[in-house]
Specification:
There is one protein chain. It contains 8 helices and 7 strands; from the N terminus they run H-E-H-E-H-E-H-E-H-E-H-E-E-H-H. The protein is an alpha/beta fold. The chain has 2 domains: 105 residues, Rossmann fold (3-Layer(aba) Sandwich), CATH 3.40.50.300; 72 residues, no CATH class. Strands 4, 5, 6 and 7 form a 4-stranded parallel beta sheet that branches. A 3-stranded parallel beta sheet has the order 2-1-3, with helices on one face. Helix 6 links the parallel strand 5 and strand 6. The mean pLDDT is 92.
């Protein structure tokens, strides 16, 4: 669940952002609700629109109010995902270093290509999420190599590894950048991903 992490990191950089939870599971909204209940600052504007037409209409009406809009559209074909693809400038697809996740990139690639036939300028990135902690993991290497076979995506060499800090932060509605004590490796990984995405 990277979307709240990204939204919080951008808010800490004094960006006026809006996090939209378009996933039926609603985990992003849950994390931000926990954050709000604990009074954690900065606050994060968050809305839930799992219905594609509603998501599209709301973003079109309100996008001028925000510096960043981050949409959690889930990883499966849905009306929310299709709406997000037509609206967004950058798509991030996190995938785990397991064969079924790598294969799923082909399905998302078809939707990316469809969106690109409607509008220009969509950049699509794939990043390893819940990557094996070891720097020399063969699963990580095999998965990142497999992305090169999916030309719809650019591979970001900024993996988010499987670390307890990410789970602990999510459960408290925090970014790993806010955890006390801080996990320097988790913080460095998130910062690298944010820099790669928002300077791309």
């Amino acid at each position: 669940m990277l979307e709240p992490q990204l939204a919080i990191a951008r808010a800490r950089a004094v960006r006026d952002g809006w996090l939209i939870d378009g996933d039926q599971q609603g985990t992003a909204q849950t994390a931000i609700s926990i954050r709000a209940e604990s009074g954690q600052q900065p606050g994060i504007a968050c809305a839930t629109y799992p219905d594609g037409p509603t998501l599209r209409a709301q973003v079109q009406q309100q996008r001028a109010k925000f510096d960043d809009i981050i949409i959690d559209a889930g990883g499966r074909d849905s009306t929310a995902l299709r709406a997000a693809l037509v609206l967004c400038d950058v798509l991030l697809v996190p995938f785990q270093p397991r064969s079924y996740d790598v294969w799923a990139l082909d399905d998302i690639a078809a939707l990316v290509n469809e969106a690109r036939s409607i509008r220009d300028g969509l950049r699509a990135f794939a990043v390893l999420n819940c990557a094996d902690p070891g720097e020399t993991s063969s699963d990580n290497a095999d998965a990142s190599a497999a992305v090169t076979d999916v030309p719809s995506f650019e591979y970001l060499p900024t993996p988010i590894r499987r670390r307890k800090a990410f789970a602990n932060a999510a459960g408290a509605g925090l970014s790993v950048l806010e955890l006390k004590p801080q996990d320097p490796k988790a913080s460095a990984e998130l910062s690298a991903l944010v820099n790669a995405l928002f300077k791309a």
